[in-house]
Amino acid sequence: xxxxxxxxxxxxxxxxxxxxxEIPGGLYDGFVVRRGTAVHAYLNTCxxxxxxxxxxxxxxxxxxxxxxxxxxxxxxxxxxxxxxxxGPCVGRSLRPLAAEVRDGRILITSDLT
Length: 113
Ligand code: FES
Known about the structure:
about 0% helix
């Protein structure tokens, strides 16, 4: 397994906010959502058509920030597990990445190679 991918300091991502990141050499980019001291990360690809979820950098959430939203056809997903709970792909899920906070940094620990 390769080195974890260092995204940013936890303190640099506001509680409730999302941040996109590039996966070097990867087919897809990823994004992370902060909930207090927890982080949830997924590949940036919608299970409906495979499109990117964001329409501008870091725009991954509904206005209330309670759910992840795909900008293409409006599918909505739970932050904690990536399950689609509304829109054209209900019951399907985002592809999760293992993420953790270590020494104040957000790290992606999934094997990305
Ligand atoms: S591509 Fe995401 S809802 Fe259609």
